[in-house]
Amino acid sequence: MYRTGHVGVSLSLFAPVGYWLVTSGYIALAALVGATFVALAMLPDCDHRLPGVSHRGPTHSLLFAALVGGAFAYLGAQVEPVLDVAVPAGLSMSGFGFLLGFGSVLAHLLADVITPMGVNFLWPHPHRSSLNVVPSKDPTWNVGLFVIGVVSTGWSMGHAFGLL
Ligand SMILES: [Zn+2]
């Protein structure tokens, strides 16, 4: 998909997570998750600028999602002693970081799997998955997904903060 569609899917996935975090009292984490999901919505498409890396190859895989998760887990472990951010019971900052990085990339893959080109979840295994619903460039779907993302996030945050 294009940027609008990707941001829309990322926001749609953030909506329930953000609701849960805010209603559980983790408002700072909810803001962090929302900002990271939007900031990383296009990360796998860095393959357009990487010489020798095929588009929707290595950076559109669960392996890449795990690598980004690993980088965030490392960051989480570094900031844990410095920043006193409350995390849900049973999760360390590094565990939370892993889920955050992994989830951000997964959101991108889910938006691309509906296109005919699909994604290579299990790269380096060559199997490509595609739901073949709509081409990436379809303006209605890109704008529609963006609107769904904004509305679902607005709805969930509005309810979480008791404004709706
Ligand atoms: Zn992509």
Q: Would you kindly provide a brief summary of this structure?
A:
This protein is mainly alpha-helical. It is 57% helix and 0% strand.
Task: Tell me about this structure.
The protein is 57% helix and 0% strand. The protein is an all-alpha fold and 164 residues long. The chain has one domain. It is flat and about 40 Å long. The structure holds zinc ion (ZN). Zinc ion is lined by residues 44-45, 56, 60, 108, 112.
Task: Report Rg.
Answer: 16 Å
The helix count comes to 5
Shape type? flat
What's the mean pLDDT score? 94
- How much of the sequence lies in strands comes to under 5%
Could you tell me the number of beta strands?
0
Structural class: mainly alpha
Helix content: 55-70%
Keyword list:
164 residues, mainly alpha, 5 helices, flat, binds zinc ion
SSE topology sketch:
Elements: H1 3-23, H2 27-39, H3 62-79, H4 93-112, H5 139-160
Helix pairs in contact: 1-2, 1-4, 1-5, 2-4, 3-4
Bound molecules: zinc ion (ZN).
